[in-house]
Amino acid sequence: MLSLKKNPQDIDRPFIPFSRPDIGETEISAVVDVLKSGWITTGKKSGEFEKRFETLLGRDSTAIAVNSATAGLHLALEAIGIGPGDEVLVPSLTFTATAEVVRYLGGDPVLVDIEPDTLNIAPNAILAAITDRTRAIMPVHYAGLPCDMTSILSIATEHKLRVIEDAAHALPAAHRGNLVGTLASDATVFSFYANKTMTTGEGGMVVTRDPELARRMQVMRLHGIDRDAFDRFQSKVPAWYYEVVAPGFKYNLTDIAAAIGLAQLDRLDAFHARRVFLAERYHNAFADLPLILPSWGSEGDLHAWHLYVVRLNDYALRLGFTREALIEHLSRCGIGTSVHYVPLHRQPYWRESLNTSNDDFPISEKAYQAMVSIPLFTAMSDDDQRHVISSVRSYFA
Length: 397
What we know:
39% of the residues lie in helices and 13% in strands. The chain is of the alpha/beta class. The protein has 2 domains: 8-19 and 268-395, Aspartate Aminotransferase, domain 1; 25-266, Aspartate Aminotransferase, domain 2 (3-Layer(aba) Sandwich). The longest helix has 19 residues, at 268-286. 46% of the residues are buried.
């Protein structure tokens, strides 16, 4: 196997991080304008950001800006009435936020295995996990590839379950020609964290076409304060007057963050085109290597390409190649990587509280043991990607 020593010609090469936000002068100017405006918390910019997002999705959507996707998932589950003893089905291969928000409300997340090709939650595993306490399904569009929402929504209808889409990776993505965020789920939650397909630094957006759910989430987003009474710009009652109608949360998005989001929305199409280009180059460059490459999805699907996750195939593992050695090799080549994710069934809290074992989730477990996320971000140059490609190939030389 190839030595892990760094190539001499790469010693002075700048480190290529796993991800880097793509921030330009437009975003910087937008933030400066807000800072000079005298109003930096939730206000006109946040409202404008919501309206622009509604225009992007269409179909009578209501968009609710929040300070994280985690907050958005919490609001959505609270709005559909999840409470103590209720079960919500979530994939084991996800970030802990997907499950923890169920615990916030006293509910029980039920971990479900994934499909081997897409790494998305498996509809047949969903069916097997449904009990008389199951109230909702929370599919995660892993790495930006939409889940089989046709099957999932059919299951939900048959069993009278609610559906909240964790679309943290999935802007813009589409299932069978329909944008994620416009499907027949109860709500969809996007993330604008620093490494996502667009960013506000921290932030998220909840989208729903249900007016009652929208109203509940708008109120609960900011301390349970009635939005109409609290609106500082259009209020018909004295500006100082407000009414607390529920014990809400502190989940509002600032105008500073919204200003970044508006600038990023203008670049979303260009961002996505660049991610597709980079993903295609990786696919072509790695086609002959002993790797399982990411799925492009079914006909009519649109992949957002938030992540590019490669997996060592069985042949590579039999030859003695390992995920850990590949990560170390790339590190010595000046390349950052990550693993998405350490499955929830392996995490101490979830393992102990849900009484899970690795054997319960064979597909998630096998994928985890072999996966590496390599750099894929719009600010990376073609030369950066060439170095990543040559470094991955050199590991298998």
